[in-house]
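Researcher: Next entry in the queue.
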Amino acid sequence: ELLTASEIDKNFNNFIGSSSLCMKKIKIKLTKPPMTRNSRNLLTNSQRKYVNFEVGKFSELLAPAQRILKYSKQNWTQIEIRSVDFETLIDITDFFTIFASSVKELYMDQVYIKSCLRLRLYLRRIEFPKLEVLEMKCCQALLFHEFFINCKTLRKFVIKSGSYISASAFEAVKTILQRNVKLETLGIHFNVFNMIFNEDIVKITNFKLKEFHALDLYRIPSFFSDVKPNMENFLFNQMKTIEALSISEWIVLDVLKLIFHMPQLR
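Model: Structure for this entry, 266 residues:
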């Protein structure tokens, strides 16, 4: 609708292009190869201040996406990467470097690296100084400790993994939870949930959540002996501030009783 309105006349075009609120609603989305040189140049040379970018489904789009992100000289604040395989750690490091200093929201779904050989002489530590939202769904576990372990500005952290979580990745997730004291929304799915609540994470957390979501969970043998008590302790520690709560249906009654002691629950 905004793009259509911008074609009415020059005034509409200039108004929408200069409005940060309007431009935040417009997303550059690359999901179908190939991309023509004219289209790439048009986006690269645009005077509009685009802030949202999504690349997905085809790894062949990474090269034109990287060129647009790098040469358009925009302050990209929202990036989405879906169903893309990077060749090496070097490639994904180069990609992240382009927008790491400005991005506030980063969404990744099924992002993998074919070769995980780490060349320490080349790879540099990337900082995300403004990152507030990090959603990682079914992504390679090493991304946690390679790129996001030093984040301290998160307000929303969503983790979903359908594969094995390495010990180093698990420790990185714990470190992220420990360092982000302003965290307001936490979403944990499947085996990440099981690993985290096998321990009492209250000891390492200093945040006060407004939202907690534990979805796509499966019953595990240690649930009643370890996971359930730890989760109860965690929810008890957060119950004065939680406004939204969603948990898989198999969580037992003792846990659900806590909702009657959550004064902010909406």
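Model: The chain has a mean pLDDT of 85.
Researcher: Noted, moving on.
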